[in-house]
Amino acid sequence: MEVPLQMCAAISIALASLDFPALSCSPTWTSTMPQVAVIHKRRISLTRGATLAGYEILARSVGLDPMRMVKEAGLPLELLANPDTLVSVDSVAKLLEESARRSNQEAFGLLLAEGRRLSNLGVLAAVVREEPTLRAALESLARYMCLQNGGLGLNLDNMGEFTLIRVKLQLRKPAHSRQGIEMGAAITLRTLRALARENFDPVSICFCHGRPSSLEVHNRVLGARIDFTHSFDAIVCRSRALDLPIESADPELGAALKRRLDQQLIEPGDKPRDRVRQIVRVLIPSGECSVERVAQQLGTHRRTLNRQLAYAGESVSTLIDDVRAEMAETYLVGGVLTLYQVGDLLGFASGAESRAGSADGTA
Is the C-alpha dihedral spanning 132, 137, 139, 141 positive or negative? Predict the structure, then answer.
């Protein structure tokens, strides 16, 4: 198997920083990268590290090594300590599914949601607390959720007597994440109950996936009738239940907070360099990290983006190299992963795929 020269270089830099002997590149190794024919690429959804609050403790309690699980999912370890770290929703969904499989905990996502508090929503928690009713709080939750978790979608369908609070994960690859859906539904339900001071009981909770072997955790965490193998994922409640007023709400304060969040929806506050690094960290494991793809994710042109970075003496290409070297250093610590596993996490394909060419400019 041939190893791409760029992969060798990135890992060599990381090894050098760890005071290990650097890898020497054989003349037979190639720097060619896979050629990818792209017709349409869905925008990658990002979420904040706060989505996995409590993961480290839960993983250890069910016999998992949280550091290893996070690494193998292609996620940065810093997300366990920094709730504002932006990561791929697809990678988080992969982590939850694999954690459930390896621990034999079919309700892993629910267990993670069980320890969640309203405060984990950050400033969004303050907004929903100041809404006059549960319905208004849900509408704000649905509108601003993208600032907390860009992969979780909430929609309210008023069916007359009943209202469906639909839960959907915005995954780049078509797939149904049982753990992610159940966790999203549980967090939404717990938010409503916290605002209603536990005076909110849905009619039922519907999931598209099948029934687990045990409902013990589901009954404890959700505390409602659960229907599996349904045609949609949703919390079903009586419409009048959403008219329940939220005690001590201050609508004026809520309006001021929403103006602040509306501004964030229009103008992200991060510097171009920080936004590029966040996007690069998400794109690298997919093997599709190029200057063009980074610019596409940020909704701009590569030349415009490079001009913005030039003021700080940077470019998209140099930031890609820097982030890849940092990731390589993280993955190599402890010797948990093999060289080829690290290469895969850094977005390098196998030797057979590498010989396909590099016309797409993948970094």
Answer: positive
Is there a single domain that holds both residue 128 and residue 18?
no
Contact yes or no for 316/305 (Cβ under 8 A): yes
CB 120 within 8 A of CB 53: yes
Domain-located, residue 107: yes
Phi-psi region of 223 (alpha: psi -120 to 50; beta: other; left: phi over 0): left
pLDDT at 43 over 70: no
**What residues make up the domain containing 334?**
5-41+270-354
User: Which residue's structure tokens are 């501004």?
Assistant: 263
Residue 328, class by beta-carbon neighbours within 10 Å (0-12 exposed, 13-18 middle, 19+ buried)? buried
The encoded tokens of residue 295 equal 């610019």
Burial class (CB in 10 A: 0-12, 13-18, 19+), 350: middle
Same domain, 75 and 24: no
Structure tokens at 274: 């920080």
Instruction: Return the higher-pLDDT residue of 97 and 351.
Output: 97
pTM of the model: 0.68
DSSP-derived 3-state class of residue 149: strand
Q: Which two tokens stand for residue 180?
A: 């992610």
Token pair 């990731």: residue: 327
